[in-house]
Amino acid sequence: MKDMTIVLGITGGIAAYKAAMLASLLTKRGAKVITVMTKGATAFITPLTLQSLTHQPVYTDIFDERDPSRITHIDLADSADLVVVAPATADFIARAAQGMADDLLTAVLLATTAPVVLAPAMNVHMYAHPIFLQNLERLRDVGYYVAEPGVGPLACGYTGKGRLMEPDEIVEFMDMVLTPKRMSGKRVLITAGPTRERIDPVRYLSNDSTGTMGYALAQMAWRMGASVTLVSGPVAIKPPLGVDVVNVESAAEMREIVLARASEQDAIIMAAAVADYRPGTVSERKLKKDDGTRSIELVKTPDILMDLREAKGRHTFVTGFAAETHDAEFYAKKKLLEKGADMLVLNNVLEPGAGFGPGTNKVTVFFADDTSVDVEKQPKLDVAKELLAMISERLQGQKDLANDQSVDSV
Ligand code: C5P
User: Which residues approach ligand 1 with their CB closer than 6 A?
Assistant: First the structure.
């Protein structure tokens, strides 16, 4: 969003105070945020707050023509890369759905050709009212994006659907709107995080995986338009917006979910650091300390990636990950072959800025056709973007091939 012009519309609801946080987040991301407030909004929050946070002018009046050479509402509409209205009240949505232009914000909305994001917030019964829903549907039909409110306690005392989407999630939603939809209509399943293999009710074997890479892939795939299932081991990361998260603990649980859903996927990305071994027996009681040494017999966990060879769909594109500390390339290529994957992403975990943890990654990607690509060190979300671009290209390639074959057979 860096250097983009965002027109932030604020309308008159109690959630207007959260628009200040949204303005601040967008400004920190490097966007130029121009605020347009309805009269109602100024009853809840002052224009000076927004001006101070964004360092940009704030508009409240359609007749406030500051520059005689320009027409404000057209100028704002044309300069916007995206218009976001947060919160969008029922009244504002009704006026917008009628195509009214009776204040500056509705006039900007009519005049702009930029994408529009509406983040409604209101009482639960207002949100469920058929007239309101019809108005919202009308706006959806003309291509406006709706950042759906959450369920929770509302300022009116009710609990239900109507809470403004959290500002950080609105930013993520805007990122999705601005991302080209290279994976539109694709179903993608991603595994992430470590697995835990129980020793007893309070102890387990696990590893250092934080899930960051898998979560970044899920977030980016959603932004690109895919419908995403994230099968996650235990991690401390917030679920990505728009993604269906299935939480699992052990390799066996992860296997069950992945295999059950494998055949319907266009792509499967196995970014989880699945434990290779588990204790042979799981004690139902906490193991007690005694004087002697103890040993745990370890048995192999199922290799999910290997089992996918049978369970996946005919055209499912499968990506594996490998974390190696030595002879990395040799093992990566061996794994690609043995596990029958289409693509294998190698991280050398000993290299600075690569492998486990939040922050950056640096990987080499190997393909089944013996080609490889180096992806330079960068934040994991950017690595995810590059990996998904490669996957979507290959999926497109498969589609083109299928089309060619059907032409041949005519
Ligand atoms: O054999 P290795 O564990 O190094 O292979 C790594 C790849 O295999 C990763 O994609 C990982 O998610 C997957 N894997 C698996 N089941 C296991 C172990 C690894 O699917 N039991």
Answer: 191, 251, 270, 272, 274, 276, 301, 303-305, 320-322, 335
CATH fold group of domain 187-285+297-408 = Rossmann fold (3.40.50)
> Quick check: 93 pLDDT over 90?
yes
Distance (Å, whole) CA 153 – CA 202 = 35
Q: Which among 305, 331, 329, 328 is positioned nearest to 318, based on CA atoms?
A: 305
189 Cα–ligand 1 center, Å: 15
Q: What is the pLDDT of residues 367-383, one digit of tens each?
A: 998 899 999 999 999 99
The atom number, within ligand 1, closest to the CA of 331 reads 4
Q: Give the pLDDT confidence of 289-329 residue by residue, as tens digits.
A: 888 898 999 999 999 999 999 989 899 999 999 988 888 88
In the block, residue with structure tokens 């099968």: 231
Q: Which of 250, 254, 305 to mutate to test the pocket of ligand 1 (most atoms within 8 A of CB)?
A: 305
Q: Which residues contact 289 (CB under 8 A, 6 or more apart)?
A: none
The whole-angstrom separation of Cα 309 and Cα 51 is: 57
Mean pLDDT of 39-65: 96
Q: Classify residue 148 by its DSSP letter.
A: P
5-178, superfamily in CATH? Flavin prenyltransferase-like (3.40.50.1950)
Q: Is 351 exposed, middle or buried (0-12, 13-18, 19+ CB in 10 A)?
A: middle
> What would the pLDDT profile of 95-108 be if each residue is shown by its tens digit?
999 999 999 999 99
Cα(43) to ligand 1 centroid in Å equals 57
Catalytic, 242? Answer no
For residue 272, which atom of ligand 1 is closest to its CA? 12
Domain residue extents for the chain: 5-178, 187-285+297-408
Q: According to the model, what pLDDT value does residue 405 have?
A: 62
Q: Would you state the pLDDT for residue 312?
A: 92
- Indicate if 187-285+297-408 has the same CATH topology as 5-178: yes
Protein residue with least CA distance to atom 2, ligand 1: 322
- What is the Å distance from ligand 1's center to 242 Cα? 26
Q: What pLDDT digit, counting tens, does each position of 320-364 carry?
A: 999 888 888 898 899 999 999 999 999 877 777 777 766 888 999
Atom of ligand 1 nearest to the CA of 305: 20
CA 390 – CA 66 distance, rounded (Å): 48
